[in-house]
Design a protein that fits this description.
Blueprint lengths: L5 E7 L15 H14 L3 E5 L5 H13 L4 E7 L2 H11 L5 E8 L2 H8 L3 H18 L3 E6 L6 H14 L3 E6 L6 H14 L7 E6 L6 H10 L4 E4 L13 H10 L1 H4 L1 E3 L6 H12 L20 H9 L27 H10 L6 H17 L5 H11 L7 E9 L7 E8 L2 E8 L3 H13 L4 E9 L8 E9 L2 E9 L2 H20 L12
Parallel strand pairs: 1-2, 1-8, 1-9, 2-3, 3-4, 4-5, 5-6, 6-7, 7-8
Antiparallel strand pairs: 10-11, 11-12, 13-14, 14-15
The chain binds 3-methyl-2-oxobutanoic acid and zinc ion (ZN).
Amino acid sequence: MPENDKRIYIFDTTLRDGEQSPGVSLNIEEKLEIAHQLARLKVDVIEAGFPIASPGDFEAVKAIAREVEGPVIAGLARINDRDIDRAWEALQYAKKARIHVFIATSDIHLKHKLRMTREEVLEAVRKGVARAKSYCSDIEFSPEDASRSDMDFMCQVLAAAVEAGATVLNIPDTVGYATPEEFGRRIAEIREKVPGIDKVKISVHCHNDLGLAVANSLAAISNGALQVEGAINGIGERAGNTALEELIMALHTRRDFYGYKTGISIGEIYRTSKLVSRLTGMPVQYNKAIVGKNAFVHEAGIHQDGVLKERTTYEIMNPEMIGSFQNNIYLGKHSGRHALKQRLEQLGFNLGEKELDTAFKRFKELADRKKEITDRDLEAIVEHEIKHIPEKFVLESIHISTGNKVVPTATIGIRIGDTLKEEAACGEGPIDAAFKAIDKATGIPVCLKSYSLDAVTGGKDAVGEVTAKIEYDGQLFIGRGISTDVLEASARAYLSAVNKVVYEKGEEVLGNVAVNS
Ligand code: KIV
Ligand code: ZN
């Protein structure tokens, strides 16, 4: 065992910085679902949001603070009274709460964004950290744009934050400008120069603009940082944040080198990644380290031969470690409810009786169309079909006529309560026609913002997974659908996004649609 076998603390900001990814918008239920999964992953801190940013953010932080146990729950605040008070209003319910306050310290930000002098920034830090401390003992302070800040001034600000009661000093590479050697040196210098630094924990928060976020975080660890911030799948502003699954597995796999452990339950990594990807609608790139579809696939003959003889010839980790089971034991149409239940349990899904009934029904429907049902298919069924929100509109039937010499036409049957509504529409293509027919049936004026189609499994009878993002009243809603028929998957995805609109905005959006449910 390495001598320096200490612990690195993992601060997850998927729900705050991660949610700042372009095109991502999570509702409270989705944020809670992710927060519960992060607790199962055993992250040390969940940054649940930025309470002053919007009423939705405030409510989400409050709900997570009330419900999610285990990790510390943090909320972000600029260093002013209103932000700090609002953050505490939401966080006060948490068993373990942390207020995370920040202000920029680089001259670029002071001059162009804050229009403040260095003296004014110092004063704001003294006052702001002290105010936060009057509410809560655990205070994190971040000098935004730290990697482009003048070292001596930043150290002065950090010292003021420690004196006013900060317990964690977080050093952000806000614009992803740092390189590993340089960033590591910065952390070492902070340790030398800031009085009282031994009383607090040093944290880092790296952005990935140059693809260096994980490397910079590891360099910081080598120089004394004890907390790393990041997001699942590396999502976040612009090119994103440190991908936590990469950092965690680097520390785990190279513990011989770094000598640090984390408290993470690594068997939950794969499930967490899938959940975040599904709820944010942000696909994971195929060759993404650790959680990408190809991360553990050996293609070259020489590699396959080596792995078959001895796994470690070409594998430094294996998928089972992160909870991804690829030993596909196929279930088919003759498999029973019990077999399905058992396999789902092995995959980590413990469903209630009603949920299992739904999953079994969808499993049988799929098995009628597809010879072999793989673990990926099962995951897709559970993740997509076990609905968490009530479905105002249920897809009953879909008929599409299309070809290169005909106008694509869709006829859609949608159940609304006891009423079956049928509508037909023509479109630019079959999917456009289907969406137009759905629009007619629901009567809700939504606008399609993005559409993506992915094959969950291989082969001609692969299950297609569609993600549709729609806009209603300036807000984004994400829907997903699966089927071996991509047109049906598309209609399901679109309709599930419309159902979210109804759920979140209330039945007034229904206008003159029949609503006798
Ligand atoms: O990137 C950044 O500087 C931030 C801070 C608020 C920590 O997200
Ligand atoms: Zn950030």
